[in-house]
Specification:
Blueprint (H helix, E strand, L loop, with lengths): L11 H4 L2 H36 L2 H40 L6 H45 L1
Helix pairs in contact: 2-3, 2-4, 3-4
Amino acid sequence: MENLSLRPKGDYSYTAEYQQLYVLTEHWKSDLEFYKDDLRFLHHLIDKYFVWFAHKEHLDEMRNLAARLSEISKKCDGLLEKTSKHLHHLAELIDDPFKYDSHKFRTEHEELENEMASFVKKFREIKKETFSASEQVIENEVKRITS
């Protein structure tokens, strides 16, 4: 799995202090909130503007794109919820280091990180596809109007 740029290489999840993991997890949450706003914009782009541009030859592509955007939006919401719970658990661990099994918790932290990396990769792909499809549809429509 990809490493997120905010995490140092190596076994950081297993050697970092809880406070350091907390700061890293706060960054993830902030990033997810940004991605959620970005996804809202992409949905808006598809839902509102493609109705004007999409001809029959683009409808299936737009429906597929909209379905994939909905799927990744749900994944984002799920990750936001998981990240919030993780932050809560980290706060409890900072207050009482013996509250949870440290190794199990750190393994869960690494799994969350891997989910984040996978999500970011998929998000970038769908964003690129959405902008590419938008550009293509708009260019075709401009050509059609000016011809």
